[in-house]
TrEMBL record, chain A:
Keywords: ATP-binding, Endoplasmic reticulum, Magnesium, Membrane, Metal-binding, Nucleotide-binding, Translocase, Transmembrane, Transmembrane helix. Signal peptide: none annotated. ATP binds at residues 406-408, 608, 650, 674, 711, 791-793, 878, 884, 907-908. It comes from Astatotilapia calliptera. Its EC number is 7.6.2.1. The chain crosses the membrane at residues 286-311, 338-360, 979-1003, 1044-1065, 1071-1092, 1104-1126, 1146-1165. Mg(2+) binds at residues 406, 408, 904, 908. InterPro entries: ATPase_P-typ_cyto_dom_N, ATPase_P-typ_P_site, ATPase_P-typ_TM_dom_sf, ATPase_P-typ_transduc_dom_A_sf, HAD-like_sf, HAD_sf, P-type_ATPase_IV, P-type_ATPase_N. Coiled coil: none annotated. It is found in: Endomembrane system; Endoplasmic reticulum membrane; Membrane. Residues 930-1163 form the P-type ATPase C-terminal domain. This is Phospholipid-transporting ATPase. The active site is at residue 406.
Automatic annotation (TrEMBL), chain B:
The chain crosses the membrane at residues 28-54, 311-332. InterPro entries: CDC50/LEM3_fam. GO terms for biological process: phospholipid translocation. It is found in: Membrane. The keyword Transmembrane helix applies. Its main location: membrane. The keyword Transcription does not apply. This is Cell cycle control protein. Belongs to the CDC50/LEM3 family. One of its GO terms (cellular component) is endoplasmic reticulum. Keywords: Membrane, Transmembrane, Transmembrane helix.
Length: 1190, 340
């Protein structure tokens, strides 16, 4: 069948086209069940088996080598090895040259192989996970493995199971067609997300699913999906119907989905891009210096070759020691010198240390170990350490000059606390709640006072904190520790700390509410704005209600059928029961155990949760939510079931969200809207008189809230007539089904409805400052770091927080700018004024998003940068995520400074990725920022120690170690170089080749690594106490051009001493070559180690052991080697040389003299710097203080 | 309690090591330590320097150049001719006793025994007495591994081939009569070379081992006939051969030729008087601007005469003392205003 290849090829081509097409048409596999592969409709799409391994068993070695040779350094070393094998170069033992590079390559290969093996294991585990696929033959779902899932299959997922592929949700056990999923595996967010089945088929049969499904090409956007079924009636499907691979099904017994994407095309796999590789500034510097070393090496080799040429030319006849090649005829001097150049490269190759890169890697691993193990950076509440995601930029932490910080969740806790509200123009200050919060601020008295307050006779319905009381009852006196545990037990639900869930109602308001609702449910409700206000708070959100008791287990459990056992007392006790799944949505009637205490609210944003809890405090308890209905219990105890007609979700353009419900009693269509004040105010119905008055008064309250630093939201409502709704709902349906421009159309429909609103009131939510924020900002600023705050909040709130956290100070000149040029001019004049020389530092800039946009336009950019350079603090408000990253990029590129961005939310991801170092705060707003970050911390205050202590240490340690490494190799190699002047530039070594390798590999390799890991130039207390010391690392830092060259010059000097002291001693004597080299090698060891001991600032036991151990190792290994090696390494002859030298007192006298003479200048310089008035400071510290005082 | 433990599963270990709080000693360079330290080191160095200098001065060295560059010198005729075994003699007079034990060296200058390829040009296995290497010398000896008729050269290589082959006899003239000074050639090589590194093949007579091989091109006699007077001093363990094979580190070097046998008149060394060295001049050096010399020297604990080390110790020692004085002044100047 010779035509087979061409059909195959055609098929492959068609497959490729199908995969790359923008739109895909998928069919059910069921009609084709049992047919051969070529007949399957979806055969072009990858199966669900994943393979994340990089290598295969067979080709591991070539593939890994190929990978490793992408590193320039490795290529260089391999080039050297190849050079060794060229006969003309006269390397004596080319095999030995192979050893170091082979060791390095094989170590790396082993590491890679191990990592790959782990990936293979996890792949296999994943691929063999069980799942249920519908089989037409057996007319039911049968158990298969994940790897058997194909595009076009029907898969059933059950509660607590992980979803095997991206499924289009077709059916759920929930009568409302809802399925809850937890996306923690994907984005780390722990709150439940709700997914809805496409066009609910209550009685779904996989076999009845026919026709095709059109969907878009796979992409990595977790929040976007487009697909439709081109039937008679076009049915659209969005992300709200897609179950993503890797998520866990929660609160839903089972669900059936159609596999849309499988395996590597699933969104979770597409999002799984490996670790990012950032290169630190120091590393970039290092590469330049490596280049200098290469130039130095070439110069030295050139000198050698030239010297050899001259030496040969000066020879009148062939002396007996010149060995002609085999031909018996000497080559021309020019040719010999040409070869000599390469021989010299081989001799002097260790100038570029192969061990440098390995040592840097090791040191960085160690530094990360120390950072992650710092107990000060550990957060007890969430039991989380600092995470280092980027492994190779630790030293950049010591060089930061600009910090860009998000406000919400970064400077503040992002624990939203309901503080005040204004309803229909009346302000309710909630003093009692403020007292409670004030009490919470004092951590020592915390528990006791809270409990006292619980004990106060409050109306029982309002005390929602019975679980706190329970804790007290069951455990006696609530100790601080226990209370923490209680907090933790709840912490798997986002935004549910006691701080946020408890709201003490305002007395006046509470009375008013109870008075209005005291009578039985009456028609007065429909007009009462107070009730509407709280109903809006309870309804207008996307909060998911779930039971409190069932603990969510993240692992897959087989026997999830266990019964639901409601218990109000299990809080704080480790519940061992498995998570039950309520087969039906919780409804009050048939679940008597369901009290309000058992409710748990899972919100996507903390504001929403805060508002729902506030409503609950006033008796408006949100009981359940399904896509179609919301149940709310009123203060009177009555339960209202609202039919939800539509939810207009929040987006950053509209800055508001709305819920359209049908009132169960009045049957009115009511739209409740909640949003940013400016987003609501402009949409209000135009009234005159009283209503207008309410708007102005409310606006005044809002301004007042903003000044207090509260986050404000406006609540509004609108009654929609049935006709309008009918018309609108048609538009809406069309928009939802659209595949082109769907987002825009959906938004347009939302805007269409959200107009002519009636203002109900406003809320003020406090976002409390995190612990020690002002202190941290102050310290960072003293450390010479400029702190910028970029926030989406409005200027008033931002400025307020700015003052609260010490970013802005009273004497600051705040320039709320609209006209940039004038400001700049003003600043210039201000600067030019000699009286203001000292005060220019105190300038701050507050700029809003609109102005920023203009300022960042190309023609103004330079002037803007010039302006902000003068400012001590900059506050950008109302900025979009894109602007945030733009600002970071501009500053980073224009000012050439090291930038750090810190944030906690998805809106900070751009900024975090744009900065040199991105820091994520693992807080309340999900994990997206943490996923994108290089380091993840739990509190802003950790930044202080991370930068000032760890940053400083990591940087100085690594910089000093690298400089030392260069010094060490230059000093050692130069010994060989000087010898060339006395051996006719013939590339002879007077030190045994093996001993040279040992010297670099064993005797002098551990001390620098220890130096890079453990040296403490300044103690942590001092670094924290005197933040100015951080300035040593900024800009050029310790590792600058001059430092490098000074140490290279020092290396030259020391090697000269080390060579010429023995030279002058042994001149004209009967010394033989290797006896001559031994004192040099030994004193080189002493010099190199003693040099390090001058650099080491504090000595611990480890230092002593390693330093003395290195010396001991040198003597032991060299003695053993020269006792064993008789003729093992011709032409070198180390046999018994060190032994005989050690019997000679001259050996010791030479070593002492060379060491002292070589190190005296460095010691003198360091010492005299430290002795002049600064006894306690050592060299670098002196510079630190010196720099900071001027 | 179990709960509490699991709560803080991620809690880092609070140990001195992980928290980087190991007790550390910081070398504080206060003037009170450094100045006395420098004085002490300086004084110690001066002491060592004086001792070294005194010892070095007490060593007697006599150097006699016999290259024969200039026309008037005794060996000029030999140096200009290529005659083998050219004889010339050198006279010198000692006015005082040359303290024993006296060592007799020959010295070469501008001779690069440390030349890279020269050093490799030998076969260690052959020199270890391995007979298989006799028939097929290592390629490292090339081009001195086979002669023109493809016979293996033993010992092969450039080092052996270029072996120094001048010989010397020392005579003393006392009141007209000339008598030989006995020279002792035993144990002048390294013990390890003689006993471990180099070995003759265990074939008796030794000559048989060399069957089928030829002597190095430049050699007058084969290896097994190097010393006619002592049968055990032949082959690869010949002392002169061993001394030559241990390559000199620097281009100007001397190598031990003989010791003056401390017996009879020479028990205390070389007494004052007139001496003659009879030289068999074979080794050409003038062509490459080399020089040859004879050196008599006695030794001390520090080896041969060397002024450098003593002077260096003295200089560094004095420098330390001077620096400590300067430091004291600086310290006084900066310290005292502080205290006011």
């Amino acid at each position: 069948n010779f035509c087979l290849p061409c059909t195959n090829k055609e098929d492959a081509l068609r497959g490729q086209r199908a995969r790359e097409n923008e739109l895909r048409s998928l069919e059910s596999n069921l009609p084709y069940e049992g047919l051969e592969k070529g007949k399957q409709p979806n055969r072009y799409f990858p199966s669900n088996a994943i393979k994340t391994t990089k290598y295969s068993l067979l080709f591991f070695i070539p593939m890994n080598l190929y990978e490793q040779f992408h590193r320039l350094a490795n290529l260089y070393f391999v080039g050297l090895v190849i050079l060794n094998f060229i006969p003309e170069v006269n390397a004596f033992q080319p095999e030995i040259a192979l050893i170091p590079i082979c060791v390095i390559l094989s170590l790396t290969a082993m590491k890679d192989a191990w990592e790959d093996f782990r990936r293979y294991q996890s792949d296999r585990k994943l691929n063999n996970m069980p799942c249920f696929i519908y089989s037409r033959k057996e007319k039911q779902f049968v158990e298969r493995h994940w790897k058997d899932v194909r595009v076009g299959d029907f898969v059933k997922v059950v509660c607590n199971e992980i979803i095997p592929a991206d499924l289009l949700l077709l059916y759920t056990s929930d009568p409302n067609g809802v399925c809850h999923i937890e996306t923690a595996n994907l984005d780390g967010e722990t709150n439940l997300k709700q997914r809805t089945a496409v066009s609910g088929h209550p009685e779904f049969e996989p076999e009845s699913f026919n026709g095709i499904l059109v969907c878009e090409k796979p992409n990595n956007n977790l929040n976007h999906f487009k697909g439709y079924k081109p039937d008679k009636q076009k049915v659209g499907a969005g992300i709200e119907s897609l179950l993503l691979r890797g998520c866990t099904v929660r609160n839903t017994d089972h669900a059936v989905g159609f596999v849309v994407y499988a395996g590597r095309e699933t969104k979770s796999m597409l999002n799984n891009s490996g670790p990012r590789y950032k290169r630190s500034k120091l590393e970039r510097r290092l590469n330049i210096d490596v280049l200098f070393c290469v130039i130095l090496l070439f110069t030295m080799c050139l000198i050698g070759a030239l010297g050899h040429y001259l030496w040969l030319n000066a020879m009148p006849v062939v002396p007996p020691y010149l060995v002609p090649p085999t031909s018996g005829q000497l080559d021309r001097p020019s040719l010999t010198s040409f070869y000599m150049f390469f021989t010299m490269i081989i001799l002097l190759q260790i100038l570029i240390p192969i061990s440098l890169y390995v040592s840097i890697e090791l040191v960085k691993i160690g530094q990360i170990f120390f950072i992650t193990n710092d107990i000060d950076l550990y957060d007890e509440e969430t039991d989380s350490r600092i995470q280092c995601k980027a492994l190779n930029i630790t030293e950049d932490l010591g060089q930061i000059e600009y910090i860009f910080s998000d406000k919400t969740g970064t400077l503040t806790e992002n624990k939203m606390v309901f503080r005040r509200c204004s309803i229909m123009g009346t302000e309710y200050p909630h003093k009692e709640n403020a007292i409670r919060l004030a009490v919470l601020d004092e951590p020592e008295a915390e528990e006791e006072v809270i409990f006292n307050q619980h004990a106060q006779p409050l109306p029982t319905r309002w005390s929602l904190d019975s679980e706190e009381a329970n804790v007290e009852d069951t455990h006696g006196h609530g100790s601080r520790r226990r209370s923490k545990v209680t907090g933790n037990a709840q912490s798997d639900v986002a935004f549910s700390s006691p701080l946020e869930t408890e709201v003490v109602p305002d007395g006046k308001l509470f009375q008013k509410i109870s008075r209005t609702s005291s009578g039985s449910l009456s028609h007065s409700q429909k007009t009462d704005a107070y009730l509407d206000f709280f109903l809006a708070l309870a309804i207008c959100n996307t909060v998911v209600v779930s039971m409190r008791n069932p603990k969510r287990h993240r692992t897959f459990t087989e026997d999830s059928e266990e019964n639901f056992q409601p218990s109000g007392q299990t809080e704080g006790v480790d519940t061992t029961g498995l998570q039950p799944c309520s087969p039906h949505p919780p409804s009050l009637s048939d679940e008597p155990a369901l009290t309000s205490d058992n409710l748990r609210y899972e919100a996507e944003s903390p504001d929403e949760a805060a508002l729902v809890y506030a409503a609950k405090a006033y008796g408006f308890t949100l009981l359940s939510r399904t896509p179609d209905s919301v149940s709310v219990r009123l203060p009177s105890g009555e339960v209202l079931d609202f039919e939800v007609l539509d939810t207009l979700t929040f987006d950053s353009n509209r800055k508001r969200m709305s819920v359209l419900v049908r009132h169960p009693i009045t049957k009115e269509y009511v739209l409740y809207t909640k949003g940013a004040d400016f987003a609501i105010m402009e949409l209000l119905e135009h009234f005159s008189g009283n209503k207008k008055n309410i708007a102005t008064v409310t606006q005044r309250h809002l301004d007042c809230y903003a000044k207090e630093g509260l986050r404000t939201l406006c609540i509004a409502k609108k009654v929609v007539s049935e006709a309008v709704y009918k018309r609108w709902s048609v538009d809406r349906k069309n928009a939802m089904a659209a595949i082109e421009n769907r987002e825009r159309l959906v938004m347009d429909t939302a805007v269409q409805l959200e107009k002519n609103l009636t203002l109900l009131g406003a809320t003020g939510i406090e976002d409390r400052l995190q612990e020690n924020v002002p202190d941290t900002i102050q310290a960072l600023r003293e450390a010479g770091i400029k702190v910028w705050v970029l926030t989406g909040d409005k200027p008033e709130t931002a400025v307020n927080i700015g003052y609260a956290c010490g970013l802005l100070e009273d004497e600051d000149l705040i320039t709320c700018t609209n006209i940039l040029d004038c400001t700049l001019e003003e600043v210039r004049r201000y600067n030019a004024d000699p009286r203001n020389v000292d005060t220019t530092q105190n300038m701050s800039l507050v700029i809003d998003g609109l102005t920023l946009d203009k300022a960042l336009s190309p023609d103004l950019l330079d002037r803007f940068v010039a302006l902000v350079k003068h400012c001590r603090a900059v506050l950008c408000c109302r900025v979009t995520p894109l602007q945030k990253s733009r600002v970071v990029k501009v500053i980073r590129e224009k000012l050439k400074v090291m930038t750090l961005a810190v944030g906690d939310g998805a809106n900070d991801v751009n900024m975090i990725q744009a900065a040199d170092i991105g820091i994520g705060i693992s807080g309340q707003e999900g994990m997206q920022a943490v996923m994108a970050s290089d380091f993840a911390i739990s509190h802003f205050k950790h930044l202080k120690k991370l930068l000032l202590v760890h940053g400083h240490w990591c940087y100085t340690r690594l910089a000093n170690m690298i400089i030392y490494f260069f010094y060490k190799n230059v000093a050692y190699v130069n010994l060989l170089f000087w010898y060339q002047f006395f051996c006719g530039f013939s590339a002879t070594a007077m030190i045994d080749y093996w001993l040279m390798i040992f010297f670099n590999l064993f005797f002098t390799s551990v001390p620098p690594i220890m130096f890079g890991l453990m040296d403490k130039d300044i103690s942590a207390e001092m670094l924290l106490g005197v933040p100015e010391l951080y300035k040593t690392g900024q800009g050029e830092g310790d590792y600058r051009f001059t430092t490098f060259w000074v140490s290279i010059l020092d290396a030259f000097y020391q090697s000269l001493v080390c060579f010429f002291v023995p030279y002058f001693v042994y001149q004209d004597s009967d010394i033989d070559m290797f006896t001559f080299g031994t004192p040099m090698n030994t004193s080189a060891l002493f010099i190199i180690l003693m040099h390090l001991s001058i650099e080491i600032k504090s000595w611990t036991v480890v230092h002593w052991i390693i330093m003395l151990g290195s010396v001991a190792l040198y003597f032991i290994v060299t003695l053993a080697y020269s006792a064993v090696c008789v003729t093992c390494n011709p032409p070198s002859n180390p046999y018994w040389i060190l032994q005989s030298q050690m019997e000679d007192p001259m050996f010791y006298l030479i070593c002492i003299l060379s060491t002292v003479v070589a190190l005296l200048p460095r010691y003198r310089v360091c010492h005299s710097l430290s002795s002049v008035g600064l006894k306690i400071f050592n060299c670098p510290e002196f510079w630190g203080v010196f720099v900071s005082t001027f | 309690m179990v709960k509490q433990e699991s709560e803080s599963a991620n809690r880092p270990d609070n140990t001195a090591f992980t928290q980087q709080r190991l007790p550390a000693w910081q070398p504080i360079l206060s003037a009170g330590i450094v100045i006395p330290g420098f004085v002490l080191i300086g004084l110690a160095f001066i002491g060592i320097g004086v001792a070294l200098l005194v010892t070095s001065r007490s060593i007697q060295v006599l150097e006699l150049d016999y290259t024969g560059d200039s026309n008037g010198s005794p060996c000029s005729s030999c140096s200009q001719s290529d005659i083998a075994n050219c004889k010339c003699s050198l006279n010198f007079t000692l006015t005082t006793l040359f303290q024993g034990p006296v060592f007799f060296y020959y010295g070469l200058s501008n001779y690069f025994q440390n030349y890279r390829r020269y050093g490799a040009s030998k076969d260690d296995n052959q020199l270890y007495g391995d007979l298989s290497s006799f028939t097929s010398p290592s390629s490292s000896c090339s081009p001195y591994n086979y002669d023109s008729s493809k016979k293996p050269i033993v010992p092969c290589g450039s080092i052996a081939n270029s072996m120094f082959n001048d010989t010397f006899t020392l005579t003393r003239t006392v009141s007209g009569t000339t008598n030989n000074v006995t020279l002792d050639g035993k144990g002048i090589a390294w013990w390890t070379d003689y006993n471990i590194k180099y070995r003759n093949p265990s074939v008796t007579p030794l000559k048989n081992a060399f069957n089928g091989t030829v002597k190095p091109i430049n050699w007058a006699k084969p290896a097994y006939e190097l010393d006619a007077s002592d049968r055990s001093n032949n082959g690869f363990v010949n002392q002169d051969f061993l001394v030559w094979m241990r390559r000199a580190a620097l281009p100007n070097f001397r190598k031990l030729y003989r010791r003056i046998d401390a017996s009879g008149d020479y028990q205390k060394g070389l007494p004052a008087g007139n001496y003659t060295i009879d030289i068999t001049y074979n080794y050409p050096v003038r062509a490459f601007n080399g020089a040859k010399k004879i050196v008599f020297s006695n030794v001390s604990w520090m080896g041969g005469s060397n002024e450098f080390l003593g002077i260096a110790y003295l200089v560094i020692g004095s420098l330390c003392v001077v620096m400590s004085v300067v430091m004291l002044i600086v310290y006084a100047k900066f310290k005292f205003p502080d205290e006011e």
